[in-house]
Amino acid sequence: VFSQSFTASFAIYNVANGVDLKGVSRPRCITCNLIDGCSFFKAVFSPNITHFILYCLGPGIPKVSVHSTKDPSRYVIMEDNRPLAKALEDKRLPETLFRTVQADNHDLHLKLSLPQGYEANLLPLLIIVDGTPGSQSVTEEFSLNWPQVLCSTHNVALAWVDGRTGVGRGQKTVAVDPRKLGSLRVKDYLGVVELLTRLPYIDDRRIALYGKAFGGYLTLKMLAATNQLFQCTAAVAPITDFRLYSAAFSERYFGLPAKEEHAYSTASVLEEVNKLKDENFLIVHGTADARVHFQHSAELLSRLVKAEANYSLQLYPDEGHVLRELHSIQHFQRTVVNYLQTCLKHSVLLELPEEEEEEDD
Q1: Which pTM was predicted?
Q2: What domain range includes position 50?
Q3: Model confidence over 157-171: pLDDT tens digits?
Q4: Three-class DSSP labels, 164-183
Q5: Are residues 148 and 57 in the same domain?
């Protein structure tokens, strides 16, 4: 299934002025093997470029250090997050794998987080969908959030995918027709899903999707493109029609709505509501969302009601795209975790009586 492993690091390089005899620049890696457990970095330089603050973001416990530009190997640790490291010493954290997979004759980057002892179990799969142009989902950045809780506590496999147009590939980035903004990404994700279901420890009857904003848009498009392949889906603040989204973004990829009506209609989730009516999905939205206006979900809900579709809905009054109130954040995490946990266990609970009846026969 997998062609090879790869590293999803993010290093800092020094690009010297000038090139070699072949006209090729030879950048020098500043952060490679600089700090143990660190390969994913962000740097902030002083105004005179004599020093820089280095943020080690993973894969180990995040750290912050100050370095001299002349000799980066000499540094002072400002924050080592020792209490966090101590708290995690006796915790069963997920095992993370990075792989390159072939789908539709393109190399796609995949990150898998698996509970310890995963090879001895048949695991449900949750795919965290992003795919926003200019974003990178498959990285070595440290993360400890509700998806990791699902993985380590409830034995759910997690997957992130960077498609053919994902960043972090340098000159290997594939140029595509911008009007195929969603269709190619959906194709990439579905290709990876097909490969993942061949793994001996993945249960192909228990696959779920989670996405926010553009990721929420892709999850709904994936539901519409398949027939109950996914057990359930959580779409948070989903973009449902690019005519309702930021003009700077939409017109960059689709052109003017008056001239590209077909492209906008093809990309719209609202045109495919009938394909969603028998699917199991949860829509979450803050009513004061200024990035993906609540109108996106309102238009979708209106059409879902007319189609007599089955869906679940969770609204957060006066909350924006990023939840601010602590009680809203905690409620959101409980809602999503409980929804996904319930639906991913549902098929197993339904099958138990059938197995008992077969034994009685």
Answers
A1: 0.86
A2: 10-87
A3: 999 998 776 555 555
A4: CCCCCCHHHCCCCCHHHCCH
A5: no
